[in-house]
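An instance follows:
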Amino acid sequence: MEASLSPALILVTGAAGKTGQSIIKSLVRCGLPVRALVRGAHQVELVKSLGARDIVSGDLESPEDYRRAAAGVKAIYHICPNVHPREKEIGRIAIEAARKMGVPRFVYHSVLHPQSEKMPHHWQKLRVEEMLFESALNFTILQPAVYMQNILGSRESLFKEGVYPVPYPLGTRLSLVDLEDVAEVAANILKDSGHDRAIYELSGREAPTQTEVASAITRIIGRPVRAKQLPIDSWRRAAGVSDPGEYRIETLVAMFKYYASYGLQGNGNLLTWLLGRPPTSLDTFLTRELRNTGGI
């Protein structure tokens, strides 16, 4: 990689979400000053506690708010809220704001295999990537695999019931990546030159079945855990109680059906190169998050 650039203010959107928080922490660790764009006042203290130097409250769907957030920054790290029905439109707003405000660098947080039209939120990200190709911006696109952190959503079930529930067949193979590795890469490419117009697939080296994930959890926490397939209708009913957004639920159902038919597997070579080390293994992640934190 080429010589480091001098630190400059970086705008992170979607800053209060799981991905945004991890990106902010990684940038701050590298001495890169962050401006965070958040939706509500209740998120201001959260991103401030992570080390964000400057905070803007605004709506990603407002061109005026996005331009205001982008004023004077040297780079944008664009994260759209997860499974957002208007990701393509928000991407257009972000790209236009970057162009109008003269932002030198634009990093887009996309997804592994956005070419998969059967997954609507992947397909929307591909449309944003297409707009970037035509934008004349200096862009970098990151395409992370399934986060290992998603396993932690079942933490209570793992420890109380010994069950790892998934809404697709137990033989489904999914490439996994530690979000902290993704955030480290984000900081690396924003502090270094040489990444303009690059598209990086960020996948760990493992693509375990769901049974293999449960076996790894058993090995790490020292108590039996079995994988259990949830019927899609059961998952849909449970999701509707906590998240009534129909687009989000049906889009995730489409993703689960895609996983059931095809899995989602990538290659770990690019992530290894970008990190300068092997990606975090599933065992290392589980040890850090489950064994060393006392479980639930």
